[in-house]
Amino acid sequence: MQKLFLTSIMAMLISSAHAQGITRDELKRADLTGKDMDVIVTIVTVPPGENLPRHIHPGEEVVYVLDGAMLELPDGSQRQFPTGAATINIRNVPHAGFKVAGDEALKMLTVHIVDKGKPVTEVVK
Predict the structure, then answer these.
(1) How many CA atoms lie within 13 A of 120 on its CB side?
(2) Which pLDDT tens digit goes with each residue over 37-79?
(3) Which of 62, 64, 90, 114 is deepest in the core (most CB within 10 A)?
(4) Hey, how many other C-beta atoms are within 10 angstroms of the C-beta on 28?
């Protein structure tokens, strides 16, 4: 259960640079050898109070939490997303839909292996 929760959180955070204040700094982008895919490495920072919409990716997403934070889930409960947590989000599975609570920003290193030419993130309802 915790692994599924962490997976959902990571994927959402990495690709959700749609909200105000969220930064997504791309560090490196390259072709995946022998495939029609890109490998994209980013640092995502989500300030306190920012909402992260539910979204999907056209490929895989790997997340490593650099600076953890408290998250508020849609049902109002809160859960820590700790420094050092790691997760993998799989293709086209909706995740995220929470708010960063408290006074600490969430900072993550993300690696996306996604279909070339497609948006890295697509918000879903």
Answers:
(1) 22
(2) 999 999 999 999 998 888 999 999 999 999 999 999 989 999 9
(3) 114
(4) 9
Residues in the chain: 125
pTM for this entry: 0.79
Q: Which single residue is written with the structure tokens 């994209």?
A: 40
pLDDT in tens, 79-125: 999 999 999 999 999 988 889 998 999 999 999 999 998 999 999 98
Residues 14, 18, 24, 29, CA torsion sign = positive
Q: Which helix (H) or strand (E) holds 5?
A: helix 2-15
Torsion (CA) 104, 75, 7, 4 in degrees, nearest 10: 140
